[in-house]
């Protein structure tokens, strides 16, 4: 369901407590067209990053016209909800089909990689055990007695395999956070190295031990122990390449959101472009405020209104000379455009005044509601346990007293599409359960929070496309710029290398910290 339907459902829920509310007119925006490069000499590579839970994207209907409203909006108007009709073109169908094919390809690639890694890991752990058991099965009577030495080697192999199993589980068996467009180079190199290493051990074992049926069982066990030791060293190499190499900061990236210009700075180590993009997205959901297209729509409507000029008509006919009057009207239109900044200033000042006014009303309403809850708790302690109210019932009891003020404040600040009545009731019951103050309850609504604070259905960004002129598997370099695009906006990432710092030392002799006080005879004491 589109964001407009979520907004209207929220208003219809509010009207259950506050009476009538205003009829909301919403218009869907056109789908964004795929950007086409105008410079034919620059070839951009576009790949897609998709988060693991494949959920449908939120509809691109967040752009809304700004509506004038008075202070009695919740009492004098009515909200009407209903179904929305959307048309779809052949281009939209082709784009949807392409997205489905890409998602299927990503899933197949992910499961194929996991299958190959699991089979190779199983082969690695079974190989040392097979090296020890095969001679006992095939030519046990011909083996030389090993005794205590082999028993000690058996214990060593068992504990080393256990350590290797725990380390492999901690390093490799993690739930994937995202689907990347290309393979991780170091991880693929490690898999190839392990395969070649195990294959060479099996080749040597088949030629020198199985074919000749070697009777030196102690040497065979030591051969298996050497394999386990080598696997442990490969695991140490994997820790260095996959975890430790990227810890030292080497680059500073600036991330700018294309719609509102909000930016953040992050420090990154030696990473590929696609892994750097994943780090940027993880920090984006945590640090950037939630994307609100309604604010951009309001600013665009104001700009269009201020740029509109006066139309000049010649009512006397084309034969009459009215050039002087026309020039005067054109000059008046120019003066009007020059004074548009004053209109914008007073409009923004009026908007800020309304926000402060409704914020004060909301704070007072919430404080009174929480005071009522405290009084109810003191009274309910004297009643029987069966008559006690749970937090959900308490939240439903006090919500009508603050619903109108909260609704008007969210609508004024254009946050109504992010907060449904059910989410507000859940947050209110949570605050009541944990004995939180009214200020703690209002923190979510007075200040727009990061994207992770809201439901996934209201993120406006779940599937991302990585656009880079360089290969996404190449490492970060100074001056590289890549773009992360989603449905409604994009993140522009500019990479700068941390400069080399030359630090010198200067020694100060402690004996040099001595001073002389000089007094003049004319100085008054």
Task: Walk me through what this model shows.
By secondary structure, the chain is α+β, with helices and mostly antiparallel strands. Among the domains are: 103-244, no CATH class; 251-292 and 460-497. It is 53% helix and 7% strand. It has helices spanning 3-18, 73-76, 90-138, 148-171, 185-210, 217-244, 273-287, 293-307, 323-338, 340-380, 391-412, 421-433, 438-446, and strands at residues 45-50, 251-257, 263-268, 463-468, 481-485, 490-497. Strands 1-4-5-6-2-3 form a 6-stranded antiparallel β-sheet, covered by helices on one side. Helix 3 (90-138) packs parallel to helix 5 (185-210), helix 10 (340-380) runs antiparallel to helix 11 and helix 11 (391-412) packs across helix 12. Mean pLDDT is 74; it is low at 1-45 and 49-96.
Overall number of strands? 6
Task: Tell me what portion of residues adopts beta-strand conformation.
Answer: 5-15%
Tally of separate helices: 13
Structural class: alpha+beta
- Radius of gyration over alpha carbons? 35 Å
Separation, N- and C-terminal Cα atoms:
87 Å
Q: Give the overall shape.
A: elongated
Largest sheet: 6 strands, antiparallel
Order of helices and strands: HEHHHHHEEHHHHHHHEEE
Helix content: 40-55%
Strand order of the largest sheet: 1-4-5-6-2-3
Low-confidence stretches: 1-45, 49-96
**Mean pLDDT across every amino acid position:** 74
Transmembrane segments: 111-133, 153-172, 184-204, 224-244
Region (Disordered): 1-86
Biased composition (Basic and acidic residues): 36-45
Protein name: VANG1 protein
């Amino acid at each position: 369901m589109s964001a407009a339907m979520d907004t209207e459902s929220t208003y219809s829920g509010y009207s259950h407590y506050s009476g009538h509310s205003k009829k909301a007119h919403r218009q869907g925006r056109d789908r964004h067209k795929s950007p086409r490069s105008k410079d034919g000499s620059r070839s951009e590579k576009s790949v897609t990053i998709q988060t693991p839970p494949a959920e449908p994207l939120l509809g691109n209907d967040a752009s809304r016209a700004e509506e004038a409203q008075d202070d009695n909006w919740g009492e004098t108007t009515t909200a009407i909800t209903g179904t929305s009709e959307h048309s779809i073109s052949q281009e939209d169908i082709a784009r949807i089909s392409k997205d489905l094919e890409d998602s299927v390809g990503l899933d197949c690639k992910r499961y194929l990689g996991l299958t190959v890694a699991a089979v190779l890991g199983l082969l690695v752990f079974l190989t040392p055990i097979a090296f020890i058991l095969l001679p006992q099965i095939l030519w046990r009577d011909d083996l030389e007695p090993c005794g205590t030495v082999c028993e000690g080697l058996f214990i060593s192999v068992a504990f080393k395999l256990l350590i290797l199993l725990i380390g492999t589980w901690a390093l490799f068996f993690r739930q994937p956070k995202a689907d990347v467009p290309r393979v991780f180079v170091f991880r693929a190199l490690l898999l190839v190295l392990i395969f070649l290493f195990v294959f060479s051990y099996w080749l040597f074992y088949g030629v020198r031990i199985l074919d000749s049926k070697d009777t030196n069982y102690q040497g065979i066990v030591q051969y298996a122990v050497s394999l386990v030791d080598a696997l442990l060293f490969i695991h140490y190499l994997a820790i260095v390449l996959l975890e430790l190499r990227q810890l030292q900061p080497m680059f500073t990236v600036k991330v700018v959101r294309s719609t509102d210009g909000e930016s953040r700075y992050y420090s990154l180590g030696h990473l590929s472009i696609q892994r750097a993009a994943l780090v940027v997205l993880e920090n984006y959901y945590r640090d950037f405020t939630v994307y609100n297209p309604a604010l951009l729509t309001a600013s665009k409507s104001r700009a269009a209104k201020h740029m509109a000029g006066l139309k000049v008509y010649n009512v006397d006919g084309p034969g009459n000379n009215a050039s002087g009057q026309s020039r005067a009207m054109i000059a008046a239109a120019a003066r009007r455009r020059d004074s548009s900044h004053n209109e914008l200033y007073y409009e923004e000042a009026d908007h800020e005044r309304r926000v402060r006014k409704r914020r004060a009303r909301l704070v007072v309403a919430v404080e009174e509601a929480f005071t009522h809850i405290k009084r109810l708790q003191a009274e309910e302690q004297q009643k029987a346990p069966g008559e006690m109210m749970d937090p959900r019932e308490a939240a439903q009891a006090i919500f009508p007293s603050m619903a109108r003020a909260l609704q008007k404040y969210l609508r004024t600040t254009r946050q109504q599409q992010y907060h449904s009545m059910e989410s507000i009731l859940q947050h209110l019951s949570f605050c009541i359960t944990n004995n939180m103050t009214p200020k703690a309850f209002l923190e979510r609504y007075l200040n727009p929070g990061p994207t992770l604070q809201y439901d996934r259905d209201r993120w406006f960004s779940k599937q991302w496309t990585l656009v880079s002129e360089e290969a996404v598997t190449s490492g970060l370099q100074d001056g590289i710029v890549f773009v992360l695009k989603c449905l409604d906006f994009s993140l522009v990432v500019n990479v700068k290398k941390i400069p080399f710092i030359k630090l010198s030392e200067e020694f100060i002799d402690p004996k040099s910290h001595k001073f002389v006080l000089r007094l003049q005879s004319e100085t008054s004491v």
